[in-house]
Write a structure and sequence with these properties.
The complex is a heterodimer.
Chain A (H helix, E strand, L loop, with lengths): L2 E2 L5 E3 L5 E8 L7 E7 L5 E7 L6 E3 L7 E6 L4 E6 L8 E8 L6 E4 L3 E5 L2
Parallel strand pairs in A: 2-11
Antiparallel strand pairs in A: 1-3, 3-8, 4-5, 4-9, 5-6, 7-8, 9-10, 9-11
Chain B lengths: L3 E4 L2 E4 L5 E7 L7 E6 L6 E5 L3 E2 L7 E6 L2 E6 L8 E7 L6 E2 L3 E5 L1
Parallel strand pairs in B: 2-11
Antiparallel strand pairs in B: 1-3, 3-8, 4-5, 4-9, 5-6, 7-8, 9-10, 9-11
Classes of the chains: A mainly beta, B mainly beta.
Chain lengths: 119, 107
């Protein structure tokens, strides 16, 4: 069974940093593109970042480029999102998911971890 | 960036009824479109990819169609477990973008 379990969310002050983790199991992690998607409370879905199989190719939403960094450790079957210079508008549930590079869909998704940026 | 719109923003329907949700891309995306279902407090679930391919395990009452800029998700006979928010997502180019969602609730 494929499992993605996000962790690392919490309450952080504006301007602060947080690192999200997403350990994966049930599939060959090193063969899969991965993605982060977020959802502000009561709002829709927003794609955040993608990373290819060996971490050499990354894509970011304009809203996070230069502040967020996606990375992975294939030896640990884990995906990460380093979030710096956090803003109020970064408050959201953050989901990790596998990304199909043959058609661009996300499946499956983790259960999400909540990041709250507030003073 | 490719903008995605959905209509209607919400729809009320009865169990057993038929629901059609439209999704439009601001430019052509071929068939690089996916549909997701999200229930309260849960992660989204993939229903359809490549515009019309049903994900394994998804009931056949769900179907997707379209290409280019106009797409449709149809639920042929609504079941109680189908009341949720539905999102489309374009996968033609980065940044990947979602539609704003369509809420399907009970009439």
């Amino acid at each position: 069974e494929v499992q993605l379990v996000e962790s690392g969310g919490g309450l952080v002050l504006p301007g602060g940093s947080l690192r999200l983790s997403c350990p994966a199991s049930g599939f060959i992690f090193s063969s899969q593109w991965m993605t982060w998607v977020r959802q502000a409370p009561g709002k829709g879905l927003e794609w955040v970042a993608n990373i290819n199989q060996d971490g050499s190719d990354k894509y970011y939403a304009d809203s996070v480029r230069g502040r967020f960094t996606v990375s992975r450790d294939n030896a640990k079957n884990s995906l990460y999102l380093q979030m710096n210079s956090l803003r109020d508008e970064d408050t959201a549930m953050y989901y990790c998911a596998t990304y199909s590079d043959s058609g661009g869909w996300f499946d499956p998704w983790g259960q999400g971890t909540l990041v709250t940026v507030s003073s | 960036d490719i903008q995605m719109t959905q209509s209607p923003s919400s729809v009320s329907a009865s169990v057993g009824g038929r629901v059609t949700i439209s999704c439009r891309a601001s430019q052509g995306i071929g068939t690089f479109l996916a549909w997701y279902q999200q229930k309260p407090g849960k992660a989204p679930k993939l229903l359809v990819y490549l515009a019309s391919v049903l994900q394994s395990g998804v009931p056949s009452r769900f179907s997707g169609s379209g290409s280019g800029t106009d797409f449709t998700l149809t639920i042929s006979s609504l079941q109680p477990e189908d009341f949720a928010i539905y999102y489309c997502q374009q996968a033609n180019s980065f940044p990947l973008t979602f539609g704003p969602g369509t809420k399907v609730d009970i009439k």
